[in-house]
Amino acid sequence: MKITIDRNKQLGYINPDIYGHFSEHLGRGIYEGIFVGEDSEIPNTDGIRNDVIEALKEIEVPVLRWPGGCFADEYHWMDGIGPKSQRKKMVNTNWGGVTEDNSFGTHEFMRLCELLGCKAYINGNLGTGTPREMSEWVEYMTGTGSSPMTELRKKNGRQEPWKVDYFAVGNESWGCGGNMRASYYADLYRHYQTFLRTYDPENPIKKICVGPGTADTKWTKTVLETCYEDAQRAFHGFMDYITLHHYVFPDGWSNKGSATKYSDELWYKSLNKAVFMDTLIKKNEAVLDDYDPEEKIALCVDEWGGWYEVEEGTNPGFLYQQATMRDALIASATMDIFNRHCKRVKMACIAQMVNVLQAVLLTQGPEMVKTPTFYIFKMYKHHQGATAVDSYITDNEFEGPDEWKIPKVSTSASVKDGVTTLTVSNLSLTDATDVSVDFCGDTVQKILEAKIVTADDVRAFNDFGHDEAIAEKEYAGYRFDDGKLSLAMPAHSVVMLRLQ
Q1: Strands 98-100 and 63-66, how do they pair?
Q2: 77 Cβ partners below 8 Å, 6+ apart?
Q3: Is residue 303 flagged as an active site residue?
Q4: pLDDT tens-digit profile of 244-255?
């Protein structure tokens, strides 16, 4: 099998935000996982766990989406500001029916972004909120002059405005966000976004429109048609991004299966559904090309990842699950797809960052573990801000049950500051493979770095109180002679090389 890399054929700029994350008020995703409060015995900065911050800095989180998710369309931001003792409580009806005390609100989220050094992506409440509520939230966060909202922000301890990079009007409005028809949502989007003002011309807020959650592009077409109707083309539908959600449910929504005790068949079903992301993106790219040939609107895949049954003994509404090599390869194959589609895909957020779904970190009291997915993000961070270049596979084999066949190898490549980053995954459950790499006549002088993530037991996972079963390690399975590169890849493995 051969991978050919043509560094002269550029696919586009890999926006770092493709490697974004998502934290919702769901289970232990915020409370315990990120926020423990200033009085906690767990070391923290302004209530935010130090161990989590330091770990996330390793993977260079570029952007963080908050507060939801389904939670966003029932979240009223004013309940989460001011003295914590005076904040209103609410019942989190979407996720476990637990009481939300709103101790983690706007100020705490923006502080988290400051500690991470990442961009802020706020998801507004369209489902139960008003245009005024949404507008005033933006003014509260970003307003520069003297107004009731900026004065309220100052009263609550923040003198200077924050920079908010992204603001979404609703979430999954076809489902938990209101069960809306596409045309109805599009009208509401046009209405609400009108009042999302930019107060600092040097830092305009990018507006995000709700896109589809299925393979049917009818939603995308209807929303774009309605948003472009009777409007100047220069407004490009009043949006900067449109979203796309795609989860891997191994055997369907009603039979998700265990995160760790899965059959060989479910391995192939899971990865088949992961690589289906490529088809979903292509379908929506085609629709966007019809309405937006100028490429002013980007795709934002702001929810993606594996979704399984919760771990035994945990609240079904908390969506807490473990992670194995299956998750590592779901992540690597998906991010290869994003890299290859970087011309239109400008942001993506894995669901979710800590303790929820395909998390990169898990916590238990004062303990924290890094999942296999964490190490894939650590490898792939070298693609951030690079230029994607063409990389294609000759004689790629397919394996698995007929209906669920998957390509054996996934890859993507990028160049930045004269250094080529190559990521290669062997998706095979059982078979090692040898791969040769052709650089189209370019000369590669040396290997700067070579890492691998794999495990002898494909169903192994990193757990509390135990040594890591899966982690990033030095990779010695390559041969580099006279500028020619070959890789010996174990089954179910991910390799990253940086070459010069």
Answers
A1: unpaired
A2: 105, 106, 125, 133, 137, 140
A3: yes
A4: 999 999 999 999
Beta bridge partners of 303: 245
Q: How far is residue 283's CA from residue 302's CA, in Å, rounded to a whole number?
A: 17
Judged against a pLDDT cut of 90, whether residue 230 lies above it is answered with yes
pTM over 0.70: yes
Candidate list 303, 309, 311, 474, residue with the active-site label: 303
Query: Tell me, what DSSP letter sits at residue 204?
Result: P
Collect all residues with Cβ–Cβ distance below 8 Å to 313 and sequence separation of at least 6.
none
Catalytic: which of 172, 202, 295, 474? 172
pLDDT in tens, 337-377: 999 999 999 999 999 999 999 999 999 999 999 999 999 99
Alpha-carbon span 277 to 247, nearest angstrom: 9
Q: Are 79 and 73 in contact (CB under 8 A)?
A: no
Compute the radius of gyration of the chain from its Cα atoms.
22
Q: How confident is the model at residue 492 (pLDDT cuts 50, 70, 90)?
A: very high
Measured from the Cβ of residue 150, the count of other Cβ atoms closer than 10 Å reads 20
pLDDT for the residue 108: 99
Find all residues with CB under 8 Å of 368, minimum gap 6, and list them. 49, 51, 52, 55, 361, 362
Q: Which two tokens stand for residue 411?
A: 């890859």
Structure-block tokens of residue 299: 């795709």
Is the bond preceding 352 in cis, omega lying within 30 degrees of 0? yes
Best CA proximity match to 94, nearest among 133, 67, 63: 67
Over 80: is that where the pLDDT of 483 sits? no
Contact present, 462 and 438 (Cβ < 8 Å): no
Which structural domains are found in the chain, ordered by start?
15-384 (3.20.20.80), 391-499 (2.60.40.1180)
Has 32 been annotated as catalytic?
no
